[in-house]
Design brief:
The chain has 164 residues and is of the alpha/beta class. The chain is built from three helices and six strands; from the N terminus they run αβαβββββα.
């Protein structure tokens, strides 16, 4: 009886997963195996965001099995258009919670020269941080949150490139 039940549960699980939109991708399914991260232009007033986005893109591409190579045929470039820190909450007239918004445009050029534009890619999640401590701690937390927001942007653009 338990063999029949095991087979029945396996059949139902397979049936449910086959219709939910999930699929397994392997390295062979990727449209490209290497990518060249070209210039990242920072049009915001916040310094070094281009370096943080470059590092995040490199890390996330490699996590997804795509090597970053300056001689690759597929190229990606970006323009950071918006960086905004807004106040979420205050306590006794001191800001204690902030939200970071980042917005970027990406251009991907295939080996045949065709280009795809991805406009206004931002973090899909609200990236916030709280600090009512001294300025050094606030700046350190801000630095970490900027890196997390860049990682979210990198994940989003890589998802748009890999998964159709």
């Amino acid at each position: 009886m338990s063999v029949f039940l095991t087979l029945w549960v396996s059949f139902l699980t397979g049936l449910l997963l086959s219709g939910c939109g999930y699929s397994v991708y392997t390295n062979r399914d990727l449209l490209f195996k290497e990518i060249n991260i070209e210039t990242i232009e920072n049009k915001t007033l916040e310094p070094k965001l281009q370096d943080k986005l470059h590092a995040a893109l490199t890390e996330e591409f490699m996590k997804n099995g795509i090597m970053v190579n300056p001689y690759a045929d597929t190229k990606i470039s970006a323009v950071l258009n918006k960086f905004d820190i807004t106040v979420l909450s205050e306590k006794k007239e001191i800001t204690i919670e902030y939200r970071v918004l980042i917005n970027a445009d990406f251009t991907v050029e295939d080996k045949d020269g065709s280009k795809k534009e991805f406009r206004k890619i931002d973090s899909p999640f609200i990236v916030s941080f709280a600090s009512s401590e001294d300025l050094a701690t606030l700046l350190a937390k801000k630095e970490l949150v900027e890196e997390r927001a860049m990682r979210d942007v990198a994940i989003r653009i890589i998802g748009a490139l890999i998964y159709k």
